[in-house]
C-alpha cells in the first residue's frame, strides 16, 4: 500500500529542507519594516502576508514529492479531519503577534503523522537560528545536538509556562486567570512566550519545566509534543488523560510527578468560585 512505501528518512529530509527555506522567508519578513497586517477574529488575532506565503511554500513543496499526502494547516487547511493517511500538520508562523511586533519568538512548526502517530516533529526559529527536530524513537535535537527535559518533580522547583494572552478572550478569561493564579503561586516562575511551538521546544530542551496550554489548535502542539516525548518528557491532556493530536489541550512536563501536580492544580483552580471583572 501507499503507507508501506513511505520512506521516513526521505520525508524528514524533505521537511527539513523546506522548513529551512520557509525560515529564510520568515526572517526576511521579520526584518522588513512594513508588513501587511490584518486582523482575523479580533484585534489580538493577527495575520500577515507571510503566514500564507510560508504555508504555500511548505504545502507545495511536500505535494511535489508526495501528491497523495494530506494536510492540516492553519491558513488554508484548518477544517480537515485526521485520518490514518500520511498527514502533515503545519503552523507556518506560530507567534504571528511576536513576528509583527519584532519580538524574535516566532517559529515554523511541522509534524508528520502516520496512522495517527506523530513520526516527525520540527520547530524552527529562524530569527534565533534554533532548529528543533525529533523523530519517533530517535531522540530530540537542537541544531543537531541531543536535548533532554529537566529533572523537576515539583512545581516549587519549576519554571512554568502558560499562554496568558488567551485570557484576552472573554469566554476564556476566568479559566486562564484562575489557573495562572493557582500555579504561579506555587512555582519558581512563570513565562508566557506567545509562541506555543517554541514553548514546547523549551520544555524539550529542559529550560521550561512544565507548560499548560488550552484553546489552541492541533498545529500549535503536534511537532512540539513529539519533541518533548523524545526528550524524555510527558505530554498529557489537561485532565491527565492521553494526549489527543486533534484535541490540543495539554499539560507537558519534565516528569510524571510534575505533570500530576499541574493536573491537580488545574482541577483545584477550576473549582474556585471566582469571577474576575
Ligand atoms: C498563537 C500562538 C500563541 C498563542 C496564541 C496563538 P499563531 O498562534 O500559539 O502562543 O498565545 O493564542 O494564536 O496564531 O501566532 O499561529
Ligand atoms: Ca494565527
Ligand atoms: Ca499557532
Ligand atoms: Ca500561525
From TrEMBL:
Alphabetized GO MF terms: inositol monophosphate 1-phosphatase activity; metal ion binding
Q: Which UniProt keywords apply?
A: Hydrolase, Magnesium, Metal-binding
Query: What reaction gets catalysed by this protein?
Result: a myo-inositol phosphate + H2O = myo-inositol + phosphate
Task: Note the coiled coil stretches, chain numbering.
Answer: none
E.C. no: 3.1.3.25
Q: Which Pfam families match?
A: Inositol_P
Residues binding Mg(2+), per UniProt:
74, 91, 94, 220
Key word Magnesium present: yes
User: What PROSITE patterns does the record tag this protein with?
Assistant: IMP_1, IMP_2
Pathway participation: Polyol metabolism; myo-inositol biosynthesis; myo-inositol from D-glucose 6-phosphate: step 2/2
The record ties this protein, via CDD domains, to:
IMPase
User: So what family is this one in?
Assistant: Belongs to the inositol monophosphatase superfamily.
Protein name as catalogued: Inositol-1-monophosphatase
